[in-house]
Design a protein that fits this description.
Blueprint lengths: L1 H27 L2
Amino acid sequence: MLLADGLRGHLADLAELTRTAGQLYAELHE
């Protein structure tokens, strides 16, 4: 159970980083 919660947390962090990177990329390439 703990492992699943940790993995879910990492996936959420990765999604957040991906979204932030996508926004930065879009701003740089307008």
